[in-house]
Amino acid sequence: TQVSGRGTAFGLHRAMDTAGAVIGILLAYWLVIYYHENYVTVFWLAVIPAAIGVGLLFFITETGGGKTAKKISFAWSQLDCRLRFFLIVTFLFNLGNSSNQFLLVRAGAAGFSAEQVILLYLLMNVSYFVIAYPAGRLSDKIGRRGILVTGYALYGLVYLGFAMVQSTWQMIGLFMVYGCYIGLTEGVEKALLADVAPADQRATIYGLHAMSVGLALLPASVLAGVLWEFFGAAVPFWFGGLTGLLSAAALWLGLRRP
Question: Which alpha helices (H) appear in the chain, and where do they start and end?
């Protein structure tokens, strides 16, 4: 059952996370210029905020401790049919969703300098930040299905655009729209999982979803690299674009209420 406010909460979470990324990218851009592209120094400096973030986790206290854990019986066949279908589709979708580094390499191959590639990445994250919270709120009002289908379809179209891109302004526009795809899907996916997962197994379902995505992303990037190497830079984006559009169509059909 869709819970009102859940999409808004996840959208806010993704927006705040991405706000930190935007600040980090701005700092990275300044450091690359200041240290004259001495990337080793830049990476070492990046360790500092990461270490601080991990250290702060030790000050977090959890509520509800001391309760006796009950045994959870997990069975794939007992899950909501829409949840099973969504997990399968996201796995197949991510087989065509190679690492974002391929987008950056594509921009570099198109003539963008290292500093300009960082700015493109910044633009993508700004777009993500702007879209994430409104997308979550909208999913509370009109449902998750339409938002996710739109996001997956947008991904497919953007990847087809990366396959055919020919100008600087097209590349800039594609990075901006790609950020919109992430904003439309990241928080809403998590809200959908919470809606259809059994109440006592939500953490398990989140772990299962993350595992399936991780299992798909590694071969996806290897496949993209092989396609790029042997058939040209455009081919992995044709593959990813078609996968995205097929996944959007599958979600539209499979996430209908029983």
Answer: 6-34, 39-57, 81-95, 101-109, 114-142, 144-164, 168-196, 202-231, 235-254
